[in-house]
Design brief:
With 741 residues, this protein is an all-alpha fold. Among the domains are: 2-95, no CATH class; 106-274. It has helices spanning 2-18, 22-36, 42-60, 68-94, 98-103, 114-133, 140-163, 169-180, 186-202, 206-216, 221-237, 239-242, 246-256, 259-274, 278-296, 300-304, 306-312, 322-325, 330-344, 351-354, 378-383, 389-399, 406-415, 421-448, 452-471, 492-499, 502-514, 518-531, 535-547, 551-561, 568-581, 585-598, 603-615, 619-632, 640-649, 653-664, 670-682, 686-698, 704-720, 728-740. Helix 9 (186-202) runs parallel beside helix 11 and helix 31 (568-581) runs antiparallel to helix 32. It is globular. It starts with a helix and ends with a helix.
Length: 741
């Protein structure tokens, strides 16, 4: 509980500083120091506050100080840094998360001599080169020991970078040197970027930001894309602080002038948005696709004559019987097609499949959640016999799979040893054919759409991060970055740049819109409309508001769209719909009448007109509309209910009975049972009325309270139909007794 309380207070301090409210920030810092008895920070806090008092005094006295703005900004940064130190000190003491459990043993990961460490790394790779030249001069045992030592050094490096709070000049130079070192395996350089990102997320440091900016200029695609992803995550986290660090904001502005950077930015922003779909996709696979596959699978072997197929071998001819497999499940083909399209656009469709395969010992080491999949990784050869040609082909094929993230590739790889040899061979053949196709597609796309390779890398990395934050056993101990909105368009640091690129911003809006994230889409459309008055933007934003249930703003947008003559009929119907939901049936009817002139045979419009007339108590006119719908579409069951109700309200009880009977014999609702009860009572059939009221509760599902509430709403209609008010409490009491039988 203390950990949560500390985080809330720290965030409140940062919010005050971002809003330039230094007095409340100092007060909260003083409270933290007193509450947790961390007196070592008292002097620094007092000094900063005294500096602020002097600045305030000089300002009030009107003393002109050309350096005031610079001093003020530096003071805010210093208070931010003090808050960071306080927060880290308290978390180090009270946090139960896996991060701080590890950090408390930081001495085990601390690199004492950077020069010696770099030399040791280089010596290892020099030894590997020597092995290739004179392998007989070095024993396998020596090489194996060296490999283990090197792997341990990489892990120490990962934690060292992660757990350093502030980077000094030597630290930054050390990391830069490693990232530029041509001998170091590029996958380990990518791991360094992940560690650097985690370190910055844990503890703010301007130097860490600059290292990520520098890494983004790398020629190594994996390093570059990981650095970009890390930058965006950290910029989002520290957005409010960035305004006080113009040098960082300036680096971002310079990058934004490059068109290739903008395209890369767009791809990654869309990938972050796409993560919001992951749970929904997994649920769809779980609830729709897998159950259908299970349902048809028992007869699948016989239907496609699997044994015969295996004897004949693979041919290019399609078996006509395959079309019949899905006759009992016509929607499955559509679902599988949708699944395939989601996969190709980069959606995370494999989370559910691989979430249960994160229990291998490999994943007990935190750094392994972030390591790119590469064939030379000693962790693979420790588990899999890479001298086996089948295994080696599988691993090589897997390394090129663009649709699997690195984490899932390792899961897939380690599960290989549990498969019988014949199954492995079939799997490898199938995967190789599949990956060859993907490779061809990837080559073609790289020609027609440059940057596709970068897109695969960044998408795989974001999915790796998603698995760490969602599946790691210690996930409850760290903040889930994927619970953030990632609404970069609302940030000060990136949002202002996005507004200068309306095409990029429009693409983001359309992606939100397509994925039914209507709240975010409406926000982006609003930003675009501030710069450009556009009928389609007004209309789409109005649709977003409508989907969010904000009919007032939706109506305003649709009314503005009228000026643009854009899809007039559709827009008129939307205006009418908004008026109906705003309880203005007279205005809704006015617009539905306009729509009727444009499309007189539209049954939906006729039904809506009938509903408006019903809400306006014009029951006879409403009935005419409903009968018109029934005449034009005799099989339309939707119209039975309003015809029955309007017939009852206009005293046509026999007619009402006829239509409600149709509903009772079809698929009745609790309201149908109740309405039929009203009709039967109006016809003098009290016993039948009581029976239908009872069914509305027992069969329909009304609770006693719901029934009573709706009955009271309908009471004036019953009295108008000739029911004696004195009989009502008697009927209701009789109903209560009958429900006890």
């Amino acid at each position: 509980m203390k950990e949560k309380d500390i985080q809330i207070k720290y965030n409140n301090i940062c919010d005050c500083l971002a809003d330039r409210k230094l007095k409340p920030a100092f007060d909260m810092i003083d409270d933290l120091i007193e509450e947790y008895n961390i007196k070592q920070f008292s002097d620094e806090c007092r000094t900063l506050e005294e500096t602020y008092h002097f600045m305030l005094k000089y300002t009030v006295e009107g003393i002109n100080d050309p350096e005031r703005k610079k001093v003020y900004r530096h003071l805010i940064i210093s208070v931010f840094e003090l808050a960071d130190q306080l927060n880290e000190t308290l978390l180090q003491q009270y946090s139960t998360s896996i991060i701080y459990q590890k950090k408390r043993g930081f001495h085990n990961f601390f690199i004492k001599n950077y020069t010696e460490f770099v030399t040791e790394i280089r010596d290892y790779y020099a030894g590997k080169e020597l092995q290739e030249l004179v392998i007989e001069t070095i024993s396998d045992k020596t090489l194996d020991d060296k490999g283990k030592e090197h792997l341990e050094n990489i892990r120490i490096l990962f934690f060292h970078i992660w757990f350093l709070d502030k980077y000094g000049e030597d630290d930054a130079e050390f990391i830069s040197e490693l990232l530029k070192d041509i001998s170091l395996e590029h996958s380990y350089k990518a791991l360094i970027i992940s560690s650097l990102t985690l370190s910055l997320l844990r503890y703010f440091d301007k130097t860490k930001f600059n290292l990520l900016f520098d890494a983004f200029e790398s020629q190594d695609a994996e390093v570059k894309q990981r650095a970009f992803v890390g930058l965006l995550i950290c910029i989002f986290k520290y957005d409010k602080r960035m305004q006080f660090l113009p040098s960082l904001a300036g680096r971002l502005v310079i990058l934004f002038e490059n068109q290739g950077f903008k395209k890369n930015l767009e791809r990654i922003l869309l990938q972050f948005i796409r993560t919001k779909e992951t749970e929904k996709i997994q649920q769809k696979i779980r609830d729709e696709i897998i159950p259908e596959m299970i349902r048809i699978s028992p007869n699948l072997k016989d239907k496609i004559n699997l044994d015969s197929l295996m004897e004949e071998g693979l041919t290019d001819d399609k078996n006509p019987e395959w079309e019949k497999i899905f006759e009992d499940s016509p929607g499955l083909i559509d679902k599988m097609q949708e699944f395939s399209e989601l996969q190709m656009e980069g959606a995370d469709v494999f989370l559910g499949s691989f979430s249960m395969l994160k229990s291998f010992p490999f994943f007990s080491e935190i750094s392994n959640w972030f390591i790119p999949f590469f064939i030379e990784n000693p962790e693979i050869s420790n588990e899999i016999n890479t001298n086996d040609p089948v295994n080696l082909t599988f691993i090589k094929t897997l390394s090129f799979a663009p649709v699997l993230c690195n984490s899932d590739k390792y899961s897939f790889c380690f599960s290989l040893k549990n498969l019988p040899e014949e199954n492995r061979e079939m799997l490898v053949q199938g995967m190789k054919a599949e990956m060859d196709q993907f490779s061809e597609i990837e080559k073609d796309e790289e020609i027609t759409s440059p940057g596709r390779k970068d897109e695969f890398i960044s998408n795989q990395y974001i999915q790796d991060l998603y698995r760490f934050y969602k599946l790691h056993p210690g996930k409850s101990g760290f903040e889930d970055i994927f619970s953030w909105r990632f609404d970069f368009y609302n940030t000060k640091s990136v949002g202002s740049l996005l507004t200068e690129s309306p095409e990029l911003l429009r693409n983001i809006a359309e992606f939100y819109f397509t994925k039914n994230h209507f709240e975010e889409a409406s926000e982006v459309y609003s930003i675009l409309l501030n710069a450009e008055r556009n009928g389609e933007l007004y209309q789409k934003r109005a649709f977003c508001y409508q989907k969010l249930g904000d009919y007032s703003n939706a109506l305003s947008g649709y009314l503005k769209t009228e000026l643009y003559e854009l899809n007039k009929l559709w827009n008129i119907k939307k205006i009418a719909l908004c008026y109906r939901n705003l309880k203005q049936p007279d205005k809704a009817l006015e617009y539905y009448r306009q729509a009727e002139k444009l499309d007189a045979e539209n049954l939906g419009i006729q039904l809506s007109i009938g509903h408006c007339l019903l809400e306006l108590n014009q029951y006879e006119e409403a009935l005419k509309c409903y009968f018109k719908v029934e005449y034009l579409a005799p099989g339309n069951k939707k119209v039975w209910r309003p015809i029955g109700w309007c017939s009852f309200l206009t005293g046509k009880n026999e007619q009402a009975e006829k239509y409600f009977l149709k509903l009772i014999n079809d698929n009745p609702t609790k309201h149908d049972f109740m309405n039929m009860g009203h009709v039967q009572w109006s016809l003098g059939k009290r016993k039948e009325a009581l029976d239908f009221y009872k069914k509305s509760i027992k069969k329909g599902g009304f609770s006693n309270a719901e029934f009573q509430s709706i009955f009271e709403d309908d009471l004036h209609h019953l009295i108008k139909a000739g029911i004696n008010p004195e009989d009502v409490p008697i009927m209701l009491d009789q109903l209560r007794y009958s429900l006890e039988d």
